[in-house]
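Blinded run. Sample ID left blank on purpose so nobody reads anything into the name before looking at the predicted structure. Input follows.
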Amino acid sequence: MTGPAAAPLTGLRVIDLATLFAGPLCATMLGDYGAEVIKVEHPGRPDPSRGHGPTKDGIGLWWKLLGRNKRTMTLDLSGAGGRDILLRLAAETDVIIENFRPGTLERWGLGWEELHAVNPRLVLARVTGFGQFGPYAHRAGFGTLAEAMSGFAAITGEPDGPPTLPPFGLADSIAAIATAFAVTTALAARERTGEGQVVDLAIIEPILTVLGPQPLWYDQLGYVQPRTGNRSRNNAPRNTYRTSDGQWVAVSTSAQSIAERVMRLVGRAELIDEPWFGSGTTRAEHCEELDEAVGNWIARHTRDDAISAFEKAEAAIAPVHDIRDVMEDPQYRALDSVTEVDDPELGPLRMQNVLFRLSATPGAIRWAGRPHGADTEEILTGLGLSGAEISALRAERVL
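Blinded prediction complete.
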C-alpha cells in the first residue's frame, strides 16, 4: 500500500464538522488522497453514522468506511471553550466542512467572518439540503428530500407504479463527490489569489445536474419525462432480462452499431432494415417488439452463455449483481475495487477502495474509522494545550 507521503493532498488539513453523509463522505475522499482529516464530533452525540445499519461487536460498520483516514476528536462547539479551540484549529487548517443549518455557526461565533479573520486562506465548505439562502434554506434537509425534489423519484419506477426512492444515499453521495470537486476548485483558486472562500453546496443541486437535460427538454418542448421502468425513451432495446438459469442480465444499446449487433445475435437481423431502427428515439417507440426479441433469446440461454455470446458479438451486456457477486467479480478483483484494510477493533475488513487511480501520486486507505474521540488529546497537545488545560476542558464537558 502506498504511503501517505506519495498522495497528492499530503500537507492539506481538513476539519470535518459534518454528519450524515454528504459532508463526511467528501472529507473521506479528501483523506483518501492524503489530506490530514480531523473529524470533530460532539462529546455526547457522535456522528449518527456510527449507529446506522448493521453493527459487529457493538461497532457500527458504516462508520468504518465513512470514518476512514480520519483522526477523531470531541468538541462542543456551542460554548466559548469549544469556540476558542475550533478557532485555534482553523488558524492552521486549509478546509472546514460543515452541514449545520444556515446561521448555526454564526450563532456560535464561528461564522465566515470569524473563521476568515483567523485564517484568510481557509476554504469553508457548507453542505446543506437547500443551500444558504432562499425560502427553504432553514428547513431540515436530507438526501431523500433531494431525490424527491430533483425529479429523480418522479422518473424512477414502473409506469403504473409510485415514484421510487433509492434504497441508499444517492443524492448525498453525488453531493459528496461534487463537494470534493468544489473544494479542490476553491483550493486551486487560492493558489492564484492567496485567499480562501465559501463553498455553498445544496444537496438538491448535484443530483439535478446528473439527471441530464430534463430542464432543457421542458423549457424548449414542454416535455416531462415519464416513468418507464428499466426502459429508456432514448434507445431500445434497454432492459433487464431473465436467463434460463433464473439469473438476470442488463442490456444497453445506446450506440446504433451495438443495437445492430444485438439484433443479429438474437436472430432478428431483419429489424435492422426497418425505417424506425435508424435512431435510438424511434427504436424506443418499438421497445415492446425489441424487448420480446431480445428477451426470448436470453431466456433460452444461461447467464454465462448469454454474456459470452454478447461479448463475442461485441455487444453490451452485464450481469445483475448483488453484493455477493460484486465481491467475487473478476473485474472488480482485478481493479482491487473492494480492498482489505486491517482494523485494530475488528481485524481485517473489506471495503470500497479509493475512488480513482492516479499513476504517480495514488491515494490509499491508511486506517478504517476510529473510535469516538480517539485522537482528542493528541490533537489538542499539537495545538499547544497542556495536560492540565485538557483536563479542565474535559471537566467543563467541552471535550
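Unblinding after everyone has recorded impressions. The first helix runs from residue 22 to 32.
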